[in-house]
Structures are given as C-alpha cells and as structure tokens.
Specification:
It is a single chain. By secondary structure, this protein is mainly α. The chain has one domain. Helices cover about 70% and strands about 0% of the residues. Helix 1 packs across helix 3. The protein is globular, with a radius of gyration of 12 Å.
Length: about 90
C-alpha cells in the first residue's frame, strides 16, 4: 500500500472531519500530520491527499502547513508507536 493509500484510508477509517473549524479542524490536522510522520509519508503526499479528497480553503491549507511543521519539529510521529494510539485510532 502506498503512502497516499494509507493516508486516504486513515482519513476514512477515523472519520477525520476537515469541514470542522477551530480546534476540531486543528485536531484533525494534528492526527493526520502525526500519522503521516509515523508512516514516512512526506508533506507533499499529505497535501496531495487533502487536495484530492477535501475542499479546503487556502487559509485551511496554510493552517495544515503550520500544524505539519510543528508536528515534525516535535516528533509527533513517535506517539503513534504507543498502545494509546492504537486504542484511539484505526490504522
């Protein structure tokens, strides 16, 4: 399975809501960013999935970029190795 397929499946399986606003949208971006780092997907692959499957505004994509950068700098991909992640998300 390619990274794009993994990300698309992760979004669907976990019903991530990118139509939300505020902290709910931020939470969806954090989950997707962390999971993508865990799988080895890069930011371009994640953006391609978002642009292909979601109707995000340029402002929302800018917020995704901010969250992704923060997640990468703070090693959010490591959390996905924990049992807690497996209990909270389907992957």
């Amino acid at each position: 399975m390619t990274n794009v397929e993994k990300l698309t499946k992760f979004i669907a399986d976990n019903k991530l809501d990118f139509d939300a606003t505020g902290s709910s949208l931020n939470s969806a971006f954090v989950a997707l960013s962390g999971y993508s780092l865990f799988t080895g997907a890069n930011e371009e692959e994640v953006r391609n999935v978002l642009e292909a499957t979601e109707s995000l505004t340029s402002m929302e994509l800018k917020e995704f970029d901010r969250v992704y950068d923060y997640s990468k700098k703070n090693n959010y991909g490591e959390w996905w190795k924990k049992e807690e992640a497996k209990k909270m998300y389907k992957f």
